[in-house]
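Exam revision sheet. Question 4 asks you to relate a sequence to its structure. Input first:
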Amino acid sequence: MSGQHMTRREFLGRGAAGAAVALAGAAFVPARAFGANDRIRIGLIGAGGRGYSLAGEMHGFDKEVNAEFTAVCDTWHARREQVAETMKEWYGGEVRQFVDYRGLLEWDGVDAVIIAPPDFAHAIILRDAVRAGKDAYVEKPFATEMDEANEALDAVRAT
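Answer key, structure tokens:
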């Protein structure tokens, strides 16, 4: 990817591929220097073990793609607060905390989300994220119910 110009939207649109590259340990090298207005603001939905792991992987190459976590959502306050504190250490600023993912999706301080709650919620949250205009990476499995998978797919196709 070195040498190619990639817009912010193209990068976010390739979120799953970018996450796979990060998980494989590869580094993304941008073709240009990013400015503050290009910064991708990410919200983490699901601060459990998998969500925290994905956040750590993203943090491993966030400077190269000019991204930062600005929000975390989890129903369990202890985990949400712990992850928010870690993100504060990473970026030096407060990280907004949400109990309900819908509040995070409504907030304009997030451009993209990493979706990593319990499996049954993946497709529903993806559908709502896309409808809210957010780009998303969703953890596997994509869905546990076919009708929810189809709803999410329809939402993605409509954008």
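Marking note for examiners. The chain has eight helices and five strands.
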